[in-house]
Structure to design on (336 residues):
């Protein structure tokens, strides 16, 4: 394993190995036998090394500054960061996302036609069912494989963006009490925002295609359940906005608390000499209570978003089925 760790196996992996993540088998086997140490980990690929990424960003930033001077506009860091990622990677992500959308729509369509064929056929044979089974299997495999590849590549791109925002010069210019907040909150938000942009990029197409498929396969009653998702999306946007504002408020309170702790530690001799420990303890506790209160409020909004995310499908399905039963009672009465 030590010889293999000289070079990242992903750089020399073939197409099937990259597609199935077979190049990670060696370290997976080793990890199942013993705890992994730093010497066992793969070296970072050249394209993902922080030194190269920062150098590429500096080069693109100079290009952005020159272009802004010529156009008389203000240079934008995000444009330089976006150019660090190659066009090939953008095209790959777009193709993978399009593939996911196609398979997302194709799978329920094939299943619907399969169920109709076996319910109306007088006799069921392998010749009629085998193509549907093969089609369902291929679509499911393609969907899962494409989604895994898209997630992996998007994580790589998001991590690069995170590295670029954690440039050493930025950290050196940041005061000490804000460094932890920058690394744990802001940098993490940058990584998550890249993943969110990928997920949202084709959301409109997914929604339109899903509604058209529901209308065709079920009935207009399915649209009633679809409105639940619109309501959840509206509330999620509002809750995320409120949670973001509260996070900024809690970060400001946390900075104030850390600054006070820094002053206490710096002047600990004076605090001890005048026996001010309890006074400062009460001040820190008061600020901490305010910080915890803001964290709890933000936690309420975030937890409600997650709760609706995991339950909205069941709620929408229940509303759709209930509406279908109430508005088409004659059909189901005849069946009974």
């Amino acid at each position: 394993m030590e010889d293999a760790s000289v070079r990242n196996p992903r750089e020399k992996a073939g197409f099937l190995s990259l597609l199935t993540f077979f190049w990670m088998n060696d370290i997976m086997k080793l990890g199942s036998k013993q705890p992994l140490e730093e010497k066992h980990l793969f070296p970072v690929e050249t394209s993902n090394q922080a030194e190269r990424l920062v150098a590429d960003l500096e080069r693109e930033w100079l290009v952005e500054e020159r272009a802004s001077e010529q156009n008389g506009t203000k240079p934008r860091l995000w444009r330089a960061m976006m150019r660090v990622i190659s066009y090939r990677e953008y095209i790959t992500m777009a193709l993978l996302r399009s593939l996911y959308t196609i398979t997302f729509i194709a799978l329920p369509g094939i299943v619907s036609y399969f169920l109709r064929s076996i319910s109306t056929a007088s006799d069921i044979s392998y010749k009629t069912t085998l193509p549907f089974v093969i089609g369902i299997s291929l679509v499911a495999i393609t969907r899962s494989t494409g989604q895994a590849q898209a997630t992996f590549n998007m994580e790589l791109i998001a991590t690069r963006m995170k590295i670029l925002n954690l440039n050493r010069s930025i950290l050196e210019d940041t005061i000490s009490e804000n460094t932890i907040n920058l690394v744990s909150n802001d940098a993490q938000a940058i990584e998550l925002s890249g993943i969110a942009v990928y997920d949202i990029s084709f959301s409109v197409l997914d929604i339109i295609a899903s509604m058209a498929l529901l209308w065709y396969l079920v009935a207009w009653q399915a649209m009633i359940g679809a409105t639940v998702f619109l309501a959840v999306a509206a509330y999620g946007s509002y809750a995320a906005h409120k949670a973001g504002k509260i996070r900024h408020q809690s970060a400001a309170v946390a900075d104030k608390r850390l600054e006070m702790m820094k002053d206490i530690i710096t002047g600990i001799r004076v605090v001890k000499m005048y026996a001010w420990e309890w006074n400062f303890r009460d001040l820190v506790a008061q600020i901490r209570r305010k910080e915890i209160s803001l964290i709890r409020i933000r936690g309420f909004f975030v937890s409600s978003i997650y709760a609706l995310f995991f339950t909205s499908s069941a709620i929408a399905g229940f509303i759709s089925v209930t509406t279908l039963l109430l508005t088409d009672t004659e059909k189901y009465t005849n069946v009974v």
